[in-house]
Design brief:
This protein is α/β, with parallel strands linked by helices. The protein folds into two domains: about 210 residues, Isopropylmalate Dehydrogenase; about 150 residues, Isopropylmalate Dehydrogenase, CATH 3.40.718.10. It has twelve helices and twelve strands. Strands 2-1-3-12-11-4-5-10-8-9 form a ten-stranded mixed β-sheet, with helices on both faces. The protein has a two-stranded antiparallel ribbon with strand order 6-7. Helix 1 packs parallel to helix 2 and helix 8 runs parallel beside helix 9. The radius of gyration is 21 Å and the shape is globular. The structure holds nicotinamide-adenine-dinucleotide. Nicotinamide-adenine-dinucleotide binds next to loops.
């Protein structure tokens, strides 16, 4: 058995049976990592959505579930099992992850080991977070229509302040010194900028905004400035703009319609994409993808494990469902992806939502409604 790390799931069998009857027989293999907190609840719905599409659209997908997360870590002391990265690369086309984080493990190190382990191990250097308003009533800004909020945050995903370079000196003494390095390489900065410009060009978009803090961080972000000057010259058809990150944060709120593609470093991209998610009504509808063009990618809702609402059937599954849409689009099923977005928007318009979006349904009921429509 090649996939000895997996535990079988009845849903996998259903999806696999359906996909076996597809025309070319080439199923897309998806590794599911439900994770912690609300992760398993929203991934269960995501799996249901895949099963619904497998049945109605003959979607060729095989899913396998992995129990990596807090429970396994507490039980066995294992975060990311040995050989996991190689197995994902070898045996799967995509990974779909719920969320990681559990109050019983305050250090959060196991979650970092799994999440950053996969991002760094597979060198998934693009973190792509679409910010698309599906219903104007969810936006906290005045007089904003759906068309006014439709951009993508492209975040560098393997370097910067999250590279894990640093240390503590004289730890736990009054003289403690803590250093967290901000790591920027020419290769890393160039490839994320090229990705953002190529993405805009491929999607027929006109505008790319690069954001840094080069006025205050002249070494690391000076490299971003110089690389940006070089890369933008290769895409003369794109209207390239630069904003310092503090100004960008203000402009996203003041006038979000001016943006199409925003590209920035790991730390700023993390913060800005949560800020931008607020324009969509919150984290409940914010999907994301960790990509490496031409290789296996990992998809995850932007939200965390939300331990405070875990197990209560109130978590909004729409971010996870839209994440399935991003994954399908990436795997070559754009029609199914568009269908998912359409049905999620319909659910929001009709109030078929969890309480965070003003509705009265539970996680499972939203999932059931969406699956029936699909
Ligand atoms: N990618 C990840 O796995 C990831 C990302 C962020 C945080 N985390 C972890 O998650 C844990 C909690 O972190 P946090 O509270 O800062 O962020 P969080 O995203 O879990 O929650 C922030 C707020 O949004 C709400 N929320 C989040 N998702 C929701 C959903 N789908 N439906 C309805 N409400 C939702 C929560 O109840 C909470 O009020 C921590 O352990 C953190 O490290 C993990």
């Amino acid at each position: 058995m090649r996939l000895s790390l997996a535990r079988y799931d009845p849903a996998w069998m259903t999806l696999n049976r359906n996909s076996a009857s597809t025309a070319n027989g080439m199923s897309k293999r998806i590794a599911l990592i439900p994770g912690d907190g609300i992760g398993p609840e929203v991934i269960r719905v995501a799996e249901q959505v895949l099963a619904a599409l497998a049945a109605s659209h003959h979607l060729p997908v095989d899913c396998k579930t992995f129990d990596w997360g807090a429970e396994k870590y507490l039980r066995e002391g294992v975060a990311l099992p040995a050989g996991a990265i190689e197995m994902l690369r070898r045996d799967f086309d995509a990974t779909l992850i719920g969320a990681l984080g559990d109050p019983r493990v305050p250090s959060n190190q196991y979650a970092v080991d799994i999440l950053l382990g996969i991002r760094f191990g597979l060198d998934l250097y693009v973190n792509q977070r679409p910010v698309k308003l599906l219903d104007a009533r969810l936006c906290p800004l005045k007089s904003v229509a759906e068309k006014d909020v439709n951009f993508v945050v492209v975040r560098e995903n393997t370097e910067g302040a999250y590279a894990g370079v640093g240390g503590n000196f004289k730890r736990d003494t009054p003289d403690e010194v803590a250093v967290q390095e901000d790591v920027n390489t020419r290769k890393g900065v160039e490839r994320i900028l090229v990705y953002a410009f190529e993405y805009a060009a491929q999607k027929g978009l006109k505008k790319v905004c690069m954001s840094d803090k080069s006025n205050a961080m002249p070494y690391g972000h000076g490299l971003w400035q110089r690389t940006y000057a070089d890369v933008r010259r290769r895409f003369p058809q794109i209207d390239a703009q630069h904003l310092y990150v503090d100004t960008l944060a203000m402009e996203i709120i003041r006038n979000p319609s001016q943006f199409q593609v925003i590209v920035t470093c790991n730390l700023f991209g993390d913060i800005l994409s949560d800020l931008a998610a607020a324009l969509l009504g919150g984290l409940g509808a914010a999907p994301s993808a960790n990509l490496r063009p031409g290789s296996i990618s990992m998809f995850e809702p932007v939200h965390g494990s939300a331990p405070g609402i875990a197990g209560k059937n109130v978590a909004n599954p729409m971010a996870a469902i839209l994440t399935v849409g991003m994954m399908l689009d990436h795997l070559g099923f754009p029609e199914e992806a568009a269908q998912i977005e359409k049905v999620v928007a319909e659910a929001i318009h009709l109030g078929m939502t969890t309480p965070d979006f003003g509705g009265r349904l539970g996680t499972r009921e939203v999932g059931n409604w969406i699956c029936e429509r699909l």
